[in-house]
Amino acid sequence: MASMTIIDIAKICGVGVTTVSRAINNHPDISEETKAMIMKVIKENHFVPNNSARNLKRSASKTIAVLIKGITNPFFNRMIQVFEKEIQRKKYSFILQRVDENQDEIEVAIELEKEKRLKGIVFLGGYFSHVKEKLEQLTVPYVLSTIGMTPEFDPQEYSSVSVDDFKESYKMVDYLCRLGHQKIAILTAPMSDVSIGKLRYEGYKQALADHGIPLNEKLVCCMKEQIESYSMENGYVVTQELLASGEEFTALFAVSDSLAVGACKAIFESGKSVPDDYSVAGFDGLDITFYYHPSITTIRQPVEEIAEETIRILFDLINKKMTHAHKIFPGELMIRDSTIPYKE
Amino acid sequence: MASMTIIDIAKICGVGVTTVSRAINNHPDISEETKAMIMKVIKENHFVPNNSARNLKRSASKTIAVLIKGITNPFFNRMIQVFEKEIQRKKYSFILQRVDENQDEIEVAIELEKEKRLKGIVFLGGYFSHVKEKLEQLTVPYVLSTIGMTPEFDPQEYSSVSVDDFKESYKMVDYLCRLGHQKIAILTAPMSDVSIGKLRYEGYKQALADHGIPLNEKLVCCMKEQIESYSMENGYVVTQELLASGEEFTALFAVSDSLAVGACKAIFESGKSVPDDYSVAGFDGLDITFYYHPSITTIRQPVEEIAEETIRILFDLINKKMTHAHKIFPGELMIRDSTIPYKE
DNA sequence: TTGTAGGCGTTATCAA
DNA sequence: TTGATAACGCCTACAA
């Protein structure tokens, strides 16, 4: 039989559609017994309400969408879990929407906002270089979570939660310098990057400068554009080239953990060792850095706290408790087995 | 200003709503110039059509949904990419819907089918033990991709694409036996599991039997229920317990690569070595098995082929070219550095 | 506590 | 090539 509607159910039950609607939506104005009867009929006939119709009619729904760019990143998994938990705790429902690499997240957001009558949006990952005019089409509050922003964006215009990529990167390179390393290679985003890749690279440069180490451009290795960015493969390939170049270095800082894993592999394959021949450090705090052998020194981003704070700010915005907020969490330098002091 | 509708646009343009609709949907019956004019107005006013209304009205849309259980699994990333590419190539649009661990994927599917007027569904991951009655509520074709099915399901009732988990598991354990290993531990799903975990365990048992090796239950290690299943952490914790138990073994077969990585870590931490003290093998063919040090022997599932075939079958079903199909792909035994012959 | 009727924004039908 | 109008399935004043 063709799909049932609320009208069919009403007919079968011998009641009006309103009553059925009330039963479905747990409205108070309905007697327990009619409700039970209706629900029974619904079960028996496998009636499922059509969400499109509901969304169309509803003026507002209690739902939050999380838009995530690059779902590949294992770093987001934990965050999504926290988002879901926190959003459900607030009795809101939760939509996870993947945004393709070559899709515009704002356009997706605008469309989704209308379709689902969203109450708020979380943007996760990606670069976020959008014109103000476009952002203004978003009529519900939104928070950028772990998204590096270039400074030309007016902080008054948006809210965000993240670590200070510049500072944390600095922290790591500073640590490597203090171990006595002077020739520190970096594996980073292409120079065209404007987001976290750039921020972390700037931290590297600053740390070197503060230690009186001149920048050696031959030790600045950029990911290949044609390979998935921040992937193990990219780290592997780029490190192979670095090793083949013959340029000397004693430590390698990869701006993401996956890159670091790929780098380690390239080093091992060349017959060298981590950390005896090269110290290697990553960034993010992925689980794999703990499980890799040797375990990999990294900057752990406090994902749970970041996710929780993101939701807290979003709801404050929704409840109009504030206009905009920016929260920066400190990262944690996890010293592991992949980095050791420089030895002559 | 409040959100625009197609009526507002029609008024501004001085045309009827139908004409606007035609412009939006690239209908043939409209002159190029009015269309251009309308599109210009739409751009200027940032009009975005409401999807709920479209879905409600449309009788059918060319869209395929991929429902994925346990988005954590990195194994799915590549598959999703292929799905997206193939679906777009067919000029269909693609929806990725995450299904929570404690959600019923069929119910999600039924709801989504109505909401989005789906043409077809792909189920990815999970266990899939559903009653026939429920499956029958799905009125569009669907394909199970890389989902282990217990034999009691009638193959006439559904379509599927996967590897033969039993056979591939057998292949791996057989290989370990041929290396001379006799005491082979397995890291597998809890015995209550009915899906791939069970199938892979059965393959292990059969291979041991065929080599005349009695099953030692102390070497059958089940994942902890309270830890994320098939995770590195689970492999780590369970292997620590195995090592602590003092039960002797020379090889360890983990039914997933992530478990294998965790196992390796536990072994290294105990002061032992892979592969010198213990050979370790995984299953799935994740990238990390190549990048780990030592690289990990595994069964590679041909993800691209599986994904492509899934879509091919789905479209054959949609176009009524067949009733049901089951495609089994062979896995590939990737012999790496984590397994070596048994030495006295 | 229950039912009737109108409208959410779009597309499809049909007539102009 | 265009436009008026009736659905699509549901929710919600408002009336009973």
From TrEMBL, chains A, B:
The keyword Mitochondrion does not apply. Gene3D superfamilies: 3.40.50.2300, lambda repressor-like DNA-binding domains. It comes from the Bacteria. This is LacI family transcriptional regulator. Residues 4-58 form the HTH lacI-type domain. One of its GO terms (molecular function) is transcription cis-regulatory region binding. It comes from Paenibacillus mellifer. Keywords: DNA-binding, Transcription, Transcription regulation. The keyword Transcription regulation applies.
